[in-house]
Design brief:
This protein has 16 helices and no strands. It has 322 residues and is mainly α.
Amino acid sequence: MIEAAASPETVKSVEAALREELAQEDAVVATIAPILRHFLANEANSLFSEEIIARVRGMVADVAAQLLDQLAAAGGGTERGVHAPEDIALLTDAIVGNPAFLGHVHALAVEWQLTERLQSRLGLDPVLSPLVQALIASSDAATAALAMNLLASQARFGQAQRRMTLPLGELPADLLHGALVALRGIAGPEPEADERVAVAETAIREAYDESRGRLGLISRIVTDMGAGAVAALSVGHAGVAIFLSALSVGSGQERDVIALSTHEAQVARFVLALRAAGLKSEAVEEQFLAFHADNPPPEGFERLGADHAASILAVSGSYPGG
């Protein structure tokens, strides 16, 4: 279907409406990190679902415990997972002082909540999507192996989310660095403490390879698809995990921002991202309704081209710290 050209006045009207809505969404996004920090420190959580808060709290505490495990091992300790609650709390507070870290674990919790929701509503397998299945069956051995690695990694992600944990190896490199800085900050000024942190940090970095993590594997798959990555812009075909990464690449938005944009309070951002990624209006509507079955997309979005949508997103705020 050929999309009809809109008059300049109509386009300006649609753009103004979407810019205004996006500005309101930016204001909501700007409050997320401080609100999350408040709810992590308190039991009441009326503005955020208990599921999201519990999962964020669990992931951050798990990262803190893993860091303390490594610190203990650097000092000759062999027992893991036995740490004073005040030590966990101190390191947790230091870690969540980084808005980007807090934003990332929040986005992971949102991603998993979305994955379970679409599994229930649309029957989407949280691990083996049709796209992954097709890649596993590829005649190219490297492609098939990469897809198999992703299959295993996505299964581990689901298990970790159910347990509310987050392996250090699954953190983006900059956030792992930030967590190590937090560890150094609470270790104490004594020379021996500094030495133990250095040993722990070396061990963690030597075991770390960002390209082998789930997000690294997805990024490689989307990149290797080239022009065929448009197939990954269908959540029903690609699954939630690959869809989010593909839309991030196509729209030029951070993946954590894209995950957040699927929320019902961020519909302008979501539609603009879909449009900026080059989807035709019918495809935008199809994807929008997959996420928001009871609500139509913003009126008039089809009058904005991909470049226009991208330019609006470019001046928008992003995830705090992102």
